[in-house]
Amino acid sequence: MDRSLEMAVFAAVVEAGSFVGAVEPLRMSKPAVSRHIHALEERLGVRLLQRTTRRLSLTEEGRIFYQRAKELLSLLDEAEAELRPTQGEPSGTLRINVPVSFGIQHLAPRWAAFMERYPKVKLEVTLNDRVIDLLDEGYDLAVRISRLANSTLISRQLATTRMMLCASPGYLRRRGNPGHPQDLSEHLILSYTNWSGREEWQFDGPAGPASVRIRPAIFTNNGDTTRAIALQDGGIILEPSFMVAQDLQAGRLVELLPDYRALELGVYAVYPSRQHLPLRTRCLIDFLVESFAQVNWSDTPSARPAA
Fold first, then answer.
1. Which of 125, 172, 211, 248 would bridge 202 by S-S if both were Cys, CB 3.0 to 4.6 A apart?
2. What residues make up the domain containing 108?
């Protein structure tokens, strides 16, 4: 039996939530769908789906296989698309969800170039920091900044960013420069909760992992807020390099404890694993990969003592 077809049927059943729901997108009868799933489980020797009269759920083996199957099906679609004659000019609407600060700083300046290259594509860009469900909320693509966990989505990495410990020269002149993460407990801390955790910051230092309990003067889920306070000599921040790189290069902020590395994150374009990815979505993904190919936000000056 065609192994790629088995994978496609399995993925469709999972995404539809039932055998009946997969009938229409697959253009198969329910008995044919059942036969493919049964043959797949027999060949693999494991149960992939738990079936009851009321619901269908993935086993742990099914979850792992689903993720890998989606990746393989996406690669197969991409390989075939590269060999097909041109499909014409991309058109239609693209609904995109992006994080607020990243969307304003690093995506907004790029949209004009995409629109000029693909004038028949209409963009609907939503900015928020909530992790949305692409399928349920009808988005074609999202940009996410994270350690991407196992997911039912397909992803393309655009760049990397690392959490950087920073303060202004004015703050450091007034309060001193910490020499070790433990010294942070004596400083004014501005906590960007989306990225840095609420009350414990962790680092990888010369002697191994190091962590410190902090007592933030402010908690906020918006990094622009904590960055603005830090620029006014208000305290120490731990924020992604894409947010503070220009401030570090200009000397408005100083990197602290450069020997103690904090979390590194990936910047990803994520999208549902659809068997036939629209040309406009494929063009957007390629555009984003191209746009961020040479980006290196972490290439900033090392920490230097406050004057």
1. 211
2. 92-153+269-291
Whether residue 299 is contained in a domain is answered as no
Please compute the mean of the pLDDT values over residues 252-279 and round it to a whole number: 86
pLDDT of 39-81, one tens digit each? 888 988 989 988 776 778 888 888 888 888 887 887 777 666 6
The DSSP H or E segment spanning 74 is helix 60-83
Q: φ and ψ at 225, to 5 degrees? A: -65, -50
Closest CA to 155 of 65, 279, 272, 287: 272
Q: How far is CA 185 from CA 110, 121, 131, 180, 262, in A?
A: 40, 51, 31, 10, 16
Extract the tokens encoding 75.
């690669």
Number of domains in the chain: 3
Which residue from 235, 260, 255, 253 is spatially nearest to 182, judged by alpha carbons?
260
Report the amino acid identity of residue 159.
A
What letter does residue 261 receive in the DSSP assignment?
A: B
pTM for this predicted structure: 0.67
